[in-house]
Amino acid sequence: MSVTVRFAPSPTGYIHIGNARTALFNWLFALKNGGRFVLRFDDTDAARSKQEYADQIEKDLHWLGVLPDVIVHQSARFATYDAAVEKLKQAGLLYPCWETSEELERRRKIRLSRRLPPVYGREALKLTDEQKAAYEAEGRKPHWRFLLPNFESDPFVTRRTEVHWDDVVRGPQTVDLASMSDPVLVREDGTYLYTLPSVVDDIELGITHVIRGDDHVTNTGAQIAIFEALGAVAPAFGHHNLLTTSSGEGLSKRTGALSILSLAQEGVEPMAVASLAVLIGTAESVSAVPTMSELAARFEPAATSKSAAKFDPAEVQALNRTLIHNMPFEEARQRLVALGIDGSDAETFWMVVRGNLERLADAAQWWSIVREGPLVRQQFNAEDLAFLTTAFENLPAEPWDTTTWKAWTDALKELTGRKGKSLFMPLRLALTGREQGPELADLLPLLGREGTLARRP
Prior knowledge:
Blueprint: E1 4-7, H1 17-32, E2 36-41, H2 51-64, E3 70-73, H3 78-90, E4 94-97, H4 101-113, H5 129-137, E5 143-146, E6 162-167, E7 171-176, E8 184-186, H6 195-204, E9 209-213, H7 217-229, E10 236-240, E11 243-245, H8 260-265, H9 270-279, H10 292-298, E12 309-311, H11 313-325, H12 329-338, H13 346-353, H14 363-372, H15 382-393, H16 404-416, H17 421-432, H18 440-453
């Protein structure tokens, strides 16, 4: 069976760089193995799920370079989940429970006070038909739990029941089902929790590898048991470490922290985000990787650390600058044209200015400076103004090339006695209106003698 992976976001907010990590781990795993990538929207929570978020998630993935082969919405698959529920009920593996959250919390505290593990004691299995009818008469609705296979014959006498898997990221893993409560699969209102629809979809869609955050490690054992209860072989699992802010806080879609949408709107390069999201917290050094194929070549799930990875958003900006400063003209060409940067000197212009850009879009300002002059005319004191008058009166004759700047400034040193910053800064301000920017030796041929004279204060 060919490798098939999935990314399963809930469309309840904008995905952030931590979500992108999971999506990219799956996408790169599929690329390395010639597999398929499924985008599955876990949108069974109708109250919180919104189409606008689903649409944006698709756009965000496309922006990152992740192109799903299949897109599925869980909200369209309730009949399939209902059938799985009936199968588990008929097998006696899904049982109704009437406890309220307050009653469950009280029992949990009692067990803890007795130094017992705070797992559900399966009290609902002891209820008589009369007791069940009494609860129903009160108007209570049951929630439904999956009966874990952690006993021989008596469900009230559990025994250590180990579930093993060779984790794609973490290596050999073991979970003891006796240490867990029977998971709730169906709520009192009949809606589904994450677990059952996820397992059913993984079976139906032929998912071979589930790669997700390590906050899911503990419930993997229960999910494997559900796969087997439904007559299926569980996929391979991989659990990568989570990303946190530099202060150690978790990322949340609800707060919009470092959302992919906001990063794209800021003009950050997709591969800057992808490089950081994939390489941080691994044995690989974090560096700006220019293409997804190169990132796939460096991607090794087993090289991921087991501890959470802290990062600073400034790292994204540093990677972004590296990508821009090294971007070939052919890669930038169409985006430059969209900014109005076109013509026979567009390539030369790009090679001159790219090393000074924070964002590719910043090239538009430099194009305006080259073509039309400083965005803001500078005011000079009398001494600098006199120096600039001398400078512009002694411009070299054309043709101009990258040696013209040195010839011009060498002559000005002899004429005025100025050197260093007092020589170069007034010239830079007069020519560009900025204290920093591209090397003037490279910029001057783009301005030309006529364009330079036009900037005379």
